[in-house]
Amino acid sequence: MPYYITDKENGCSGWAVVDQAGDAFGCHQTKADAIKQAVAISLADDEPFVGERNEDGDPIIISDLDDTLIRGKTLIRKTWDYLQSLEGALFIVTGRPRSDEEETRKTLEDLGVTFSRLIMNPGSSADSIEYKKATAETLLETYNVIEAVENNPDALAAYRSLGIKVTDPADIPATNSVRALNVEAPAYMRAAAKQGLKYYAEGLAGDGVVDRTIREAREMAEGRISDDKWIRIAAWIARHLVDLDSPNAKPNSDNYPSPGVVAHLLWGSGPSKQAANRALDYANSVVARIREQEESERMTELTRALPDELVVGDYVAWLIGTEAYAGEVLSIDEDTAEVSIYDEEDGVWSDTGLKVMVPIADLKKVEPLTAPEELPDLTDSNVIPIRTKWLNAAYAIKAKLEGVPEEGRAKNVNETRTADVTFEIRENGDGMTFEGYAAVFNSDSSPLPFTERIAPGAFRKSLQSRNDIKLLWNHDTGIVLGSTRAGTLRLVEDSYGLKAIASLPDTQAGRDAAVLLKRGDVSAMSFGFTVPTGGDSWDRAGNVRTLNRVSLHEVSLVAFPAYSATTGTTSVRSIEGTIDADTLAEALLKLELGEELEAEQANLVTDIVGKLTKTPEVEEVQGDILALKKKKLDLLMLGMTNGN
């Protein structure tokens, strides 16, 4: 581990010798004495002495380009997300020659990569390692280089020899796991940090406070807390609760506030044990979310191929309904790929010119499409089932008749789900707190026209976002009982489902809700959500829908635990217009499968056929009504296809 000298070390009035981790090994009155010790230690440990650490410079991150940040003209998403999670300006240092600068800048612009500087090799690629080391040495004279991300082992060694922290992109976790939760500080922690900073400015913090604590307290006062800080907050408060037992920690003491009280405030805790425990509970809940996210991503890594394993130019196959398609990948955007569809005729594959966007999870790599061959077995793939085909058709019909934008069909439909809840109720000095599950994973809904399940992790992205999620009464936005941003509502995904922990307000609505919960009159929770594109999947028969990812908007205490059997015990849908797309899709699916229609379905199809059909009158024949409606449907779909 390299050694440095610095005159900025806390506790040293002169110069200190420190290692890369920031641990000090000695203090000296002169710079020369510090250099002597640093040289002696480096010789004894066989580690380099890199000189003076420039901690006053602006923080920067160094990143390589090819096979680190991009591959060809495709962004390596997990590296980009990782770089964005670091604090510092991005300096791209690449072995590409300067003659390629214009093309390189164009590629980065097209990929949406923003950076502060692009530094390119003035010589040949053969001496790129020495060039990168020399560049880093120059940058260290002006900047505080936080980290270097590089895939070349020799370049990593060169950066490491300069005392720069290095990261190989192969060691970067999956994209989602490096996206920090960045949970904002609740109001009471922001207020504590502000008070602590005020006491610090008055000289009441004692000698034990370090610069980092003050810097992070200022960020906390503005609501910003990193994941790493949350983890340290939980551990720090737990260790230092005893400091609040000091006589000088009592407000009636002549020496109040004690340094311990000031430290608690700077850490977002509080001046009393009750306030400190409140902050500790909240910090522990955030840490639990961080750990759950890490574990979920770890399990995902074991079961799912990473998107960056697919590259532009790969040949792939996928299913739509029961039909297999094949083509070439043109571009990749996080979890979807643009694919040009190929067709085979007389033993020759050719590009049809048709381009589609396909979820990466649905694609399976195949050999280059140069000769006729059997497409791979895709039965285990996540496919677009038959039912989804008819659901898309139903929304197209709905859009045409009612003027509802077709592209907004699924993702803009607000939905709610309701379930019975066993509440855990606690009374405390601030009022009443309750816990309950707003959603349960892998539990079949009933009785919908189809079965629905919520997959573990469905709420993860919503919980990671900074969006404020409210606790409402009966989905009424005018009756707010809690808020994640205010810290009065906590939402946590565990192995069972989506748990809500809330402190009810001292308002009429809050007191009413508390009474109803205690009496058992209210025994259900519900959540309001939308499903983003690709957020759900269906089994091949179209009978089972799985919610894999939802956008969570609110959770509610609801008065009724279930809906009538005719409307579904776990579903209420807000859909504009008079056509129920789900009912229509069910009817179209039954027609394709040759099944009998319910009277309501038959009437709906007849009405729609009558409104949309512009083909010549069909001569009605005596006999099976199902055959007649199927014939009309064929004409209808033919007309819609030709019209498009």
Task: Describe what this molecule looks like in 3D.
- This protein is α+β, with helices and mostly antiparallel strands and 644 residues long.
- The protein folds into 6 domains: 3-51; 59-172, HAD superfamily/HAD-like (Rossmann fold, 3-Layer(aba) Sandwich); 189-302, no CATH class; 312-374, SH3 type barrels (Roll), CATH 2.30.30; 414-574, no CATH class; 581-643.
- Helices cover 33% and strands 26% of the residues.
- It is built from 16 helices and 29 strands.
- A hairpin with a 2-residue loop joins β21 and β22 (476-483).
- α6 (187-201) crosses α7 and α6 crosses α9 (259-266).
- The longest helix is centred in the middle third of the chain and has 31 residues, at 273-303.
